[in-house]
Amino acid sequence: MTYIKRAFISIKRNIGKNFLLLMLFLILGILMSGAISVRQAISNTESSLLTTIPSVSTIYADMESLRNAEIDDPWQEIERSLERITLESVQEIANLSYVKTYDFSLSVDVLTREINQVFAPSITSEIIGEQTFQNLLDTFEPLENEELITQSLYGVHREEITDISTGTISITSGQSFTQEQIDIGTPVALISTTFANENNLQVGSVFNLETITFDYRELMVEHGDDFWGMVGNELDYIHLVETWELTVGGIFEIEQEFDYINNPWLAASSERRLQNRIYLPNRLVQEIGEVTFYANQEFAPLWWGTEGSFDEIMNHQVFFVLHDPRDLNAFRDAANELLPEFLMIADLSNNFHSITASMDSLLWIADGILYATLFATVVLVSILVILFLYDRKHEIGILLALGERKKNIVLQVLIEISLSAFIAICLAIYMGNFIAEAISNQMLETRVIQQLEENDRLLNSDTVPFIYVPFVLETFNSGQLSVEEMLATYDVSLNRETIATFFVIGLTTILISTTVPIIYLLRLDPKKILA
Predict the structure, then answer these.
(1) In this prediction, what percent of the chain has a pLDDT beyond 70?
(2) Cα(519)–Cα(531) distance, rounded to whole angstroms?
(3) What's the whole-model pTM score?
(4) Which residue would you say has higher pLDDT here, 512 or 451?
(5) What is the full DSSP assignment across 161-216?
(6) Are 163 and 176 in contact (CB under 8 A)?
(7) R_g (Cα) of the chain, nearest Å
(8) Is 385:518 a contact under the CB 8 Å cutoff?
(9) With left for phi above 0 and alpha for psi between -120 and 50, is residue 145 left, alpha or beta?
(10) Phi, psi (degrees; rounded to nearest 5) at 189
(11) How far apart are CA 175 and CA 295, in angstroms?
(12) Quick one: which of 10, 159, 262, 451 is 20 to 30 A from 293 by CA?
């Protein structure tokens, strides 16, 4: 009689014991299935959430590390760390396989005139309400006949502009910069459609950018630190520093969607900034910044001081655009290893911090259940198999005495146990997944709401939560997901990967638990087994 036939005959003769074994496997399998389903759902949800944001990162201050280090002067430490960020160190991070392109941009704000800024929100009053819409216009619309304005100049280091690579803007007329224009600092500008229309500009148009400061030297000499009370009309102290003749090389359209529903003020601020931004080669931005900085030192020394250089205060913005947003976490870990202390890689993933923090709690519970179940499976199944074999030791001893090969006896017992295990696993995977979906969805929703309430509490207290999106990334930011949108990405439904993982882990654990006591028993002499 073959060992396969003996296995099925043994199952028929021991239906009660095999049913007990089946129920044990089923209970353990349900726990294991639920834990694996939750783990897989969390992994899939994180990947889904990452695909909703641009794959762009930047270097930012690690405020939480500074707080934990209890540094007396954190900003001084940040400055020291930033001084160690060079084009070479940025290039080292950009060489990581995750990076598609990068930009090392110099940004400068200058005081100017004879330029009309604009705010044309991509939303209507019907959507956000008449009152909110009017409040946005009152806050962000430029004042009529405004004498002086602050103009942002955004430097470009490479032909592949980050805002174009991420789909934030697209060229609709003319062209972007060539690398030659960038290298030599050609006075060519890239402006938005709304800015061009407001200033009657088109591709090829030439316009003047005046950089202005205030000449307070006489007042400062006469009144010292109290000079400001004697200013009166500050326009009387305007001093023209330089006039820069710029040619419009390209015009862009803003493709970024802004979240006016959940955060209208941030959306309006980001859209206005993009609409009025002037892109220029880095070299030209640095030249403009230097001239303005040293003029300010000369004409307003009490404000700007007389020492220091422009290089010490210039604002470099570093952006890395990845091939795949799902690599943001892996890139962050790899790049942080290359950064000085108190600096880190920051991205837009904090938009859904509330659900990721909640999923971390859920993952901790799922891991606890999974590891406990694996341990219980090994222990309980091993004990049951030992009892099972002890009850049949005479049968095994006789088979060995009659010359049956030990391998066949092992296979016979494995078939008996594996059949029960397979049936239990097939039932457990669906039952465990159903239970896990019902329980984890409710737990996650409750935890997300609690996390949002905690964030609001911290924002309204003296404790600053270090959960933020860096200001320099706001123009890429389409806004935070709502609770419903975040929860909609959490999917505990079964897929091939979850089913395969469960079968591999479940059957492997059961086979290990079964094989060890069988091999131990078969190492004994048949006479000892029959004794």
Answers:
(1) 79
(2) 18
(3) 0.69
(4) 512
(5) -HHHHTTSEEEEEE----HHHHHHT--EEEEEHHHHHHTT--TT-EEEEEEEEE--
(6) no
(7) 34
(8) yes
(9) left
(10) -120, 150
(11) 33
(12) 159
